[in-house]
Design goal:
Blueprint lengths: L7 H17 L10 H4 L20 E13 L3 E12 L13 E10 L3 E13 L2 E12 L8 E2 L8 H9 L6 E18 L10 E16 L14 E4 L4 E4 L1 E15 L3 E12 L9 H6 L6 E11 L9 E14 L14 E11 L8
Antiparallel strand pairs: 1-2, 1-15, 2-3, 3-4, 4-5, 5-7, 6-9, 7-8, 8-11, 9-10, 11-12, 12-13, 13-14, 14-15
């Protein structure tokens, strides 16, 4: 079992999705390309109807941008992707038609860090994407953000982080990370179709498992006779991560997609760090560890897409809000922070195509 206390249906849902697709692929919505698409005339820049699929250009130069603010824990991030995407092959079946290979650069900017990196994505099927990335991480000595610890059993509650910052135990440093993320996704039409052939709703399911490796440069901030601290607090993961090890993060979304471009659903997220024996002070500490630093949360997700005009300079502007309650957390599930206080996120995203489409929408 990957995550302690995680319901079995969450772990097995990805495999269920594959079986579902194999057995019932004919039920998946197969919006036929617009007549102009079939004739080879691109529809770039025109509004995309609900459920409609517009074939992408063979080669795309894409920019994707996301700005997000979150609370519990507090954070602000700006993420920019820029790269080239190429269609692998042309197919009409909905399970295979949305295929591509993408390579590009990514930049994550926060008030406390700068993370430039490279990204490679392979989508052999509409329902499967394999994403890999590597990034260099530079943490600044701002807001006393980067802190390291002598053991994975140490206290990293918000109050403790603040007290350690007052003791000048935070510092600037750098490191590397790399990750692999298989993504499974599909959608099923619900309700009768209208005159344009679109169903009333879609139910969309998306699951992403991120396996990330970190290699961080730490100091003896815990005053352990010169021994470099083996773990560090990751604000992004909200847990103690090994300075030379792996973390697992799983995200599951079940979304109801509507004709008015308003999507509502449920988001589930779980995080589990993986430690070495050397990430503890003693062997006894390592033996007594029971995945206390793992956590998971669940809550509603709302997203509104203002418009979708195929493959244009400014497209798919989307406003996102979510509130998730911690089902399990060492400090945010009643130990220090009340269980009723959720994790909250507000974000805005858009994407741009630079090789095709009109200059203006």
């Amino acid at each position: 079992m990957i995550y302690p206390h995680m319901p079995a249906w969450v772990i097995n849902l990805s495999w269920f999705a594959l079986v579902f697709l194999a057995l019932f692929s004919s039920r998946i919505h197969a919006s036929q390309p617009h007549e102009k698409d079939m004739q080879g005339i691109p529809r770039y820049g025109q509004p995309v109807a609900f459920g409609e699929y517009v074939h992408p250009p063979a080669t795309r130069l894409i920019l994707k941008h996301l700005t997000a603010v979150r609370y519990n824990p507090l954070g602000v991030v700006d993420v920019i992707h820029f790269g080239v995407q190429r269609v692998l092959f042309r197919k009409e079946h909905p399970v295979t038609r949305s295929n591509y290979v993408y390579s590009g650069v990514r930049l994550k900017i926060t008030p406390t860090s700068l993370k430039p990196g490279v990204v490679l994505e392979l989508a052999p099927l509409s329902v499967l994407t394999i994403q890999t990335s590597a990034q260099w991480m530079q943490y600044f000595h701002t807001f006393n953000s980067f802190q390291s610890f002598a053991s994975a059993k140490d206290d990293y509650a918000d109050k403790t982080l603040s007290e350690r910052a007052d003791e000048e135990r935070s510092y600037a440093t750098s490191g590397l990370s790399a990750d692999v993320s298989p993504i499974l996704q599909f959608r099923v039409p619900i309700g009768k179709k209208n005159n344009q052939g679109s169903p009333r709703f879609f139910i969309a399911i998306r699951n992403q498992l991120c396996m990330a490796y970190h290699r961080m440069n730490t100091k003896d901030a815990s005053f352990q006779n010169g021994r470099k601290d083996p773990v560090w607090y990751s604000n992004e993961l909200d847990t103690l991560a090994s300075t030379n090890g792996w973390t697992l993060q799983n995200r599951l979304d079940v979304i109801l997609m509507t004709r008015i471009r308003l999507n509502v659903g449920v988001h589930y997220e779980a995080v589990r760090p993986i430690y070495r024996n050397t990430d503890f002070r003693t062997a006894k500490e390592a033996d007594s560890y029971r995945n206390e630093n793992s956590h998971h949360r669940l809550g509603p997700l709302i997203a509104y897409r203002f418009f979708d005009r195929a493959y244009t300079r400014f497209n798919r502007p989307t406003l996102i809000f979510s509130a998730h309650w911690y089902l399990s957390h060492r400090w945010r599930h009643g130990a220090e922070i009340p269980t009723a206080l959720p994790y909250m996120l507000l974000a805005f995203s858009f994407q741009s195509d630079f090789l095709h489409g009109p200059q203006k929408n």
